[in-house]
Design goal:
The complex is a heterodimer. Chain A is mainly alpha-helical. Chain A folds into 2 domains: 1-76, no CATH class; 77-274, Orthogonal Bundle (MetI-like fold), CATH 1.10.3720. Chain A is built from 13 helices and no strands. Chain A has helices spanning 11-18, 20-25, 28-48, 50-54, 67-77, 81-114, 116-129, 138-144, 148-173, 177-185, 210-230, 232-238, 252-274. In chain B, 33% of the residues lie in helices and 21% in strands. In chain B, a hairpin with a 2-residue loop joins β4 and β5 (87-90). Chain B has 7 helices and 10 strands. Chain B is of the alpha/beta class. Residues 1-6 of chain B have low confidence and may be disordered. Classes of the chains: A mainly alpha, B alpha/beta. The complex binds adenosine-5'-diphosphate and magnesium ion (MG). Adenosine-5'-diphosphate is lined by residues 31, 33, 38, 40, 58, 60-66, 237, 286-290 of chain B.
Chain lengths: 275, 290
């Protein structure tokens, strides 16, 4: 299920990818950013060595270890197994929480987007819980979960979950009605959530079963995601999709999913209305 | 019905067109936002013959889009009937027409999916209807794009080609479904004159080959006469049929037609009818929504 098929490889995208590094190195913004980081490190170094160098210890910064000491200490732990073990453990926790948040958050957000009753029931409690910062959940999660690991993963989960749900929901709202109508007019009649059997259309062709529409639907979703990922830049440049001016947390994937599912749902609604 | 292989020729290319008669009978559409009844269409009747290139003109806000939406099944009608060939699309017991690939809308601003290549866009219809496998649909899409002079562009994304090409691809995307009617709502409205004339020629070429019925909304009278077989002039809201102008300029037509005497006379005849309605609409302060 590849969306950008063999027959049709986008030329412009390959080009823009290859030269990405060169473009970055050639950009003023990139170098300005580098200089900013270096200046920051220098100021930090001066600040924390202020007692040693000028005889007057600056408040707060003066108490921090200077970056050069940090680097030296780091080079020592680099050799130790435990250091990498910590990396591994942290990654595991974060990924567990994040993946769980996706697995639950994306379908949940989609349900909110496509079903009014679901939204009426689940959105209000969701909105009540959303403003609670993840850190505030720590005590509760220590009680909920049997192991420490689980409670840490849970807090990570919460950090990602609300953002994902909101983005999926937001994505669904940005769909252009033209796309929905285009899809409807090209074969939506068979996009069916309701378990009815295929119908005959006016050309006498028997509509394929639901499993088929599901597959096509998946293709649609993945196609949208793949395209969004591969040619973000090109889409930004050419397509006037709302990628460019979106909220920094917005994920094109979420938009994609929401759009695809909503498109499909509308099709189903129409199929039902037509009955 | 069997699928012809010559993909762009399907409506009686040998002889008279047989599919795509559109009958509108006493159509009424009343919009009712918050209890304020807006009568957009008032007992409007039309008889469009199979394979007709039918142009709908009328002042802004008179109800042209409403008419098209009713045919496409985007919204319900209040009363009246619409038939496509012998099939009742919508009527007293069925206020909203089922959407189907027999009537395909080509949108004003274009609605190619920007995340699919032109070929994938074209292949979408047959794939989603389950009539062709992905491979076959793509092959056919490439074939049809080539026929429409877009052979090299099948692998490009809509954002990478000119608006004219994208528009042409969109018509191909509609035609691959072998529709009975193409519904176009001011498709070339935002284009400059030069691009428009290229689009006209492309559309005429496609029409001459397919003889698919075309329901084309415009308010450019020269466009209407240049492209159409018949021009249906509508009254200002509520919309009714005011006048039908038969355009008996032979096909295939090209741009020389524009400077011919019969063409000028037809434009004038239509203009008189439209102008009267446009003044009424202006005085009523009609505002168009879509
Ligand atoms: N959804 C709607 N709700 C209420 N009034 C509408 C709606 N859509 C269109 N109208 C009204 O119906 C009339 C016809 O609209 P429309 O068919 O879009 O005109 P046009 O001929 O310019 O395409 C207009 O006066 C418009 O204000
Ligand atoms: Mg309109």
């Amino acid at each position: 299920m590849v969306s950008v098929s063999e027959v049709s490889r986008p030329i412009g995208i390959a080009r823009s990818r290859r030269s990405f590094l060169r473009r970055t190195l050639g950009r003023q913004e990139f170098w300005r950013g580098c200089v900013a980081i270096v200046v920051f490190l220098i100021l930090w170094e001066i600040g924390s060595r202020s007692g040693e160098w000028f005889g007057y210890t600056l408040p707060h910064v003066g108490l921090l270890p200077p970056p050069s000491d940090v680097a030296v200490a780091w080079s020592k732990v680099l050799m130790k197994w435990g250091y990498w073990e910590s990396w591994y453990q942290s990654f595991k926790r974060v990924l567990t929480g994040f993946i769980a948040a996706q697995i639950i958050g994306i379908p949940f957000g989609l349900m909110l987007a496509v079903n009014k009753y679901f939204r009426d029931i689940f959105f209000p409690p969701f909105e009540v819980l959303r403003p609670i910062p993840p850190l505030a959940w720590v005590p509760a999660s220590l009680i909920f979960w049997p192991t420490n690991e689980m409670s840490i993963a849970f807090v990570t989960f919460l950090g990602a979950f609300f953002t994902i749900v909101i983005n999926v929901l937001g994505g669904a709202r940005t769909i252009d009605v033209r796309y929905l109508r285009a899809v409807q007019s090209m074969g939506a009649s068979q996009w069916d959530l309701g378990g009815r059997r295929g119908r005959r259309d006016d050309l006498g062709r028997r509509h394929a079963g639901r499993w088929r529409s599901r597959l096509l639907h998946l293709e649609f979703v993945y196609g949208r995601i793949a395209a969004a990922n591969r040619c973000r830049h090109d889409l930004d440049r050419h397509c006037r999709l709302p990628f460019k001016h979106r909220h920094p947390h917005d994920r094109p994937q979420c938009h994609a999913l929401a759009q695809a599912v909503l498109i499909r749902k509308t099709g189903a609604d129409h199929a039902q209305a037509a009955q | 019905m069997k699928r012809a292989d010559a993909s762009l020729e399907f409506n009686g290319s040998s002889g008279m067109p047989t599919r795509g008669a559109l009958t509108i009978r006493d159509l009424v559409k009343i919009y009712d936002p918050e209890g304020v009844n807006i009568m957009a269409v008032d007992h409007c009747s039309m008889q469009i013959t199979p394979g007709e290139f039918c142009m709908i003109v009328g002042p802004s806000g008179c109800g042209k889009t409403t008419l098209l939406n009713a045919i496409a099944g985007f919204h319900s009608i209040t009363s009246g009937e619409i038939f496509l060939d012998d099939k009742l699309l919508c009527g007293p017991d069925k206020p909203i027409a089922a959407q189907g690939a027999d009537r395909i809308v080509v949108f004003q601003n274009g609605a190619l999916f920007p995340w699919k290549t032109l070929a994938e866009n074209v292949a979408y219809g047959p794939m989603v209807q389950g009539v062709l496998s992905k491979r076959n649909a793509l092959a056919k899409a490439h074939e049809m794009l080539a026929e429409a002079g877009l052979g090299e562009f099948g692998g490009k994304y809509p954002g990478e080609v000119s608006s004219g090409m994208a528009r042409r691809a969109e018509i191909v995307r509609a035609l691959i479904n072998r529709p009975k009617v193409l519904l176009l709502d001011e498709p070339y409205r935002a284009m400059d004159g030069l691009t428009k004339s290229i689009m006209h020629e492309a559309l005429l070429e496609i029409y001459d080959r397919t003889k698919v019925t075309i329901f084309f909304i415009t308010h450019d009278l020269e466009e209407a006469i240049f492209l159409g077989d018949r021009v249906y002039v509508l009254t200002t809201r509520p919309c009714r049929l005011k006048k039908v102008v038969n355009v008996d300029i032979p096909r295939p037509r090209n741009y020389e037609v524009l400077s011919s005497e019969p063409f000028r006379l037809l434009v004038e005849e239509t203009r008189d009818a439209v102008h009267e309605e446009a003044i009424k609409a202006f005085q009523l302060g009609e505002r168009e929504l879509a």
